[in-house]
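pls design
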């Protein structure tokens, strides 16, 4: 087997049956604009890459796209309902229903990704650092690690609001709040599915943490990565208060210890 689980504490897992259906329909292909950039970067940085691990793979749309480019895809998500949709959207991929915090792999991957602010769901700094170290251990010297995160500023600017999505199938109300002191953003969802002459109600609570850029990059440095970053929405060089950041990371190999800044610059040059 490629993987094994470690002890997992029971907790309420977001993306239940009802919201997974909505996510697959409305947000499943969130990476439509980002995926071409990822593939272009891989082609330049590591044209011989073959294996791709997608952490928090959701309903499998990224896996479906990389399969079309002949990658061998492995997807992990802790929601069994998300994995259920991924089996439909990306049937050729190896899919694992597990929490990414408690995984271990025996073989490295060429490419690893964790997209759509999935890492913001890890609200403890120590757990984020540990995950980065685990990801580093799943890589070899040529591997690339992509991830994006909502920034502290992005959550502060955007998450004090209420949004409603409504169509003939369902109504979804999302009440978002942000706590400046803790950096935690909470989304309380209330949904109603239409069923003949009545409605079926469901609810979920999603909690993200907005990390300061310095916190993210300290954790990456500590985990032996070199990296560059882009605005997660425009894919250009980040300006002041970017709402989302996309990181492109390579192992901080021993051969670059004497000049790690050049390693960062080279990554940025080759992703232009």
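designed seq:
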């Amino acid at each position: 087997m490629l993987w094994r689980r470690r002890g997992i504490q029971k907790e309420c897992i977001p993306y239940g049956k009802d919201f997974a259906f909505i996510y697959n329909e409305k947000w499943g292909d969130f990476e439509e604009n980002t995926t071409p950039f990822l593939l272009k970067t891989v082609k330049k940085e590591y044209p011989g890459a073959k294996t791709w691990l997608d952490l928090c793979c959701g309903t499998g749309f990224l896996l479906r796209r990389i399969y079309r480019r002949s990658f061998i895809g492995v997807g992990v998500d802790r929601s069994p309902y998300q994995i259920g949709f991924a089996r439909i959207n990306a049937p050729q991929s190896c899919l694992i229903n597990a929490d990414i915090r408690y995984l271990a792999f025996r073989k490295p991957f060429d490419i690893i990704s964790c997209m759509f602010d999935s890492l913001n769901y890890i609200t403890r700094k120590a757990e984020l650092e540990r995950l980065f170290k685990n990801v580093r251990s799943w890589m070899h010297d040529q591997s690339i690690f992509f991830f994006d995160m909502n920034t502290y500023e992005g959550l502060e600017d955007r998450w004090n609001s209420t949004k409603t999505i409504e169509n003939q199938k369902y109504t979804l109300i999302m009440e978002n709040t942000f706590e400046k002191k803790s950096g935690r953003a909470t989304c309380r969802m209330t949904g109603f599915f239409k069923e003949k002459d009545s409605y079926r109600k469901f609810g979920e609570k999603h909690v993200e943490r907005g990390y300061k850029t310095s916190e993210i990059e300290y954790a990456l440095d500590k985990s032996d990565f070199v990296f560059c970053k882009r605005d997660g929405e425009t894919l250009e060089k980040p300006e002041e208060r970017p709402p989302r950041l996309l990181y492109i990371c390579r192992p901080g190999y021993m051969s670059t210890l004497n000049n790690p800044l050049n390693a960062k610059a080279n990554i940025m040059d080759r992703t232009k």
